């Protein structure tokens, strides 16, 4: 795993810590763990989405605005990578 | 949807009900069937059902006899294989005679649609077959005391004991709970799950106890008998659907609910506006050569009716096109579309009944004329408050923050 990937994942976790309202500590989650199962509501996922857009200065296109895009740290990282937003 | 092209139901599938709806995939034929059932078994009891707040068992028995409780169950499981559009045609037509009867059927279909699409164990599939073969009536317990109407979170949770589940839920509303053969309840997956981590559980009548905790004495939809209950259920563990309820909700429950409800309200609006039109026509016959005063209101009324029908039908087409595509039905754009359908249709139905009342005047206001609109008006006001429009608008306002143009 490159340092860049690690950094992105760490920043995603920071966003989640602030906005996902998880029932457990985000660092206790594996990067593939289901965030919805960890207590993130669809309401909270909207805030996470907006926070990611602000953090990486990107805009998720309509086709990416689905439940699965924000279902795990890995999924969010993959979505950001697809938009060219790394590190 | 593929059922339309399939041959007659194989007798070995267990479809032993003499479903006279089975050979009527055509929408016009289904509408005619619903109209007959409505005239013979629904309309004659509608006023009494409303007045006494009693279950419309004549109508539901007739639907059962026609095989229509299995309408949305696939043919290979003994049902009629109807899609939402076919189900909606029947609901829309029944609503013209009795909104409560139509609502019971709509709510039943919503639960069945969820099972049909998301059943993930052989036991759940077998149960879905039983719904069609035995024409079981399915109710739901999605809301819970203490969570304020949000169906997407639960306090209660499933308890697994060996190969059995146990569940106790304080449900502020279980529509026709005392008349249903099955209750589909939502609950947290287990004791440690987050409030939003829910599953759907099939609770069979013979394994549940329901203790009433509230009455159902309301302005309208009085025949749905939507009392509150403490539901205590047990059953085989494989009747717990493991698919996250969040997925069931966004893919199926929300769109099917809003489409069937909107179709129901459309049926009520059509009935009110046609009563108004017939009222004016009757007046015109009495005073040949003059245009009755109410006639001037008819163009606007017809426009409103057409607009509502077009909205419902366009959203129906949209859903049918993507119903089998989990990504598309999970999309935010689609969720907003369905939310707005609910808000628009529930607002419009009141508006249309109001306009019809102005046309019919005192004949619409009275309870004892063929143009009476009182029950329709009272029922229409239920549309905005069941799954409150303000809650839906609030959700949509949040979704609008991230909706993107195509």
Walk me through what this model shows.
Chain A is mainly α. Chain A contains 3 helices and no strands. Chain A has helices spanning 3-19, 42-56, 73-82. Chain B has 3 domains: 2-136, Orthogonal Bundle (Butyryl-Coa Dehydrogenase, subunit A, domain 1), CATH 1.10.540.10; 139-241, Butyryl-CoA Dehydrogenase, subunit A, domain 2, CATH 2.40.110.10; 245-400, Up-down Bundle (Butyryl-CoA Dehydrogenase, subunit A, domain 3), CATH 1.20.140. Chain B contains 13 helices and 8 strands. In chain B, helix 3 packs across helix 6 (245-286), helix 4 (99-118) runs antiparallel to helix 6 (245-286) and helix 6 (245-286) packs parallel to helix 9. The model of chain B is unreliable at 1-19 (pLDDT under 50). The A-B interface holds A 22-23, 36-43, 46, 49-50, 59-63, 65-68 and B 152-153, 189, 193-197, 244, 246-247, 250, 327, 330-333, 395, 398-399, 401-406.
**What is the helical fraction of chain B, as a range of percent?**
40-55%
Instruction: Provide the CATH top-level class of the largest domain in chain B.
Output: Mainly Alpha
- The CATH level-2 architecture of chain A is identified as Orthogonal Bundle
Q: What is the average of the pLDDT values of chain B?
A: 92
Q: CATH homologous superfamily of chain A - what is it?
A: ACP-like
**CATH fold name of the largest domain in chain B:** Butyryl-CoA Dehydrogenase, subunit A, domain 3
- Principal-axes shape call of chain B: globular
Major sheet attributes of chain A: none
Short description:
By secondary structure, chain A is mainly alpha-helical. Chain A is built from three helices and no strands.
Please specify the SSE layout and strand pairing:
The complex is a heterodimer of chains A (87) and B (406).
Chain A: H1 3-19, H2 42-56, H3 73-82
Helix pairs in contact in A: 1-2, 1-3
Chain B: H1 27-52, H2 57-65, H3 84-95, H4 99-118, H5 122-133, E1 138-141, E2 159-161, E3 164-171, E4 182-188, E5 198-204, E6 208-214, E7 228-236, E8 240-241, H6 245-286, H7 298-322, H8 326-329, H9 332-360, H10 362-365, H11 374-380, H12 382-385, H13 389-400
Parallel strand pairs in B: 1-4
Antiparallel strand pairs in B: 2-3, 3-7, 4-5, 5-8, 6-7
